[in-house]
Amino acid sequence: MQTPIVTRILQQARAHRDTSDIPGFEAAFGTGQPAGITQEQVARLAGVSRRWYGNLESGRPANYSDAFLQAVRRILDLNDEEWGIVHRVIRGHAPAAAPVSHLGALLPDAFRAFVEESRTWAVYLNDYRWDVLAYNAKALEYFPWMQYGLNVMEWALAWPEARTQLVNWEEEWAKPMMAQLRVHAEEWRTDERMRAVVETVRADPTARKLWDARDLPAITHPASAQPRRLYLAGRGDQEFAVRFMAGTPDELPSCRLMVVTPAEAVSSN
């Protein structure tokens, strides 16, 4: 019997996946892992059961969510051709492009070049819905998911793999970010894209509890005086502390320029 194409693609991707490129993998699963990534590990990073992921890898029809399929793509690092085949076989059509902010067209070329060509620190620019407009190579070293066109809040708050990379996820990352999201949701309550971001975040049960929490901090921007910790690709289970510095460009007052600088490397032992 011929092996389904989805099975072949996903099994080969798992067998060849370099798990050192997955931030926080060793902290979550330990060192000395065999080559490749197991079904159990993919499922845990995607926030589903092994059986559910196994159904996908076996090519069984089911109501797989967009978030789950996209998570599998990132975890297994599927290239565009592999991702297109998997999506067409599972969904019957090509994957939709990531949402594009209308503010991207207003971004001056000189400003885009400043962001993308910055060499010293990680730099990125997002709009008021946290859709990323531009980023540099250093930003990808911290946040590889940016290459897939993901929204900052959706990734950090709703995608389970973020909780593997971001140390002390709830206190250091999720609570202050959720507070920011709630403020912007009130400010731009009639914005359709903002509502879509909020719906995506609230669709995750863990994130929804935080959205409804009464003890969130009163903050609308990341505080540079409060470092946050995370794992980096290729750096094993070593924790790194970073600082976020936020600024508002005069030419794009509804956007925020983010600069991420290393605070200190801290031992995980």
UniProtKB/TrEMBL annotation:
SUPFAM superfamilies: lambda repressor-like DNA-binding domains. CDD domains: HTH_XRE (cd00093). PROSITE patterns: HTH_CROC1. InterPro entries: Cro/C1-type_HTH, Lambda_DNA-bd_dom_sf, MLTR_LBD. SMART domains: HTH_XRE. It comes from the Bacteria. It holds the Pfam family MLTR_LBD. Residues 35-83 form the HTH cro/C1-type domain. Signal peptide: none annotated. Coiled coil: none annotated. This is Helix-turn-helix domain-containing protein.
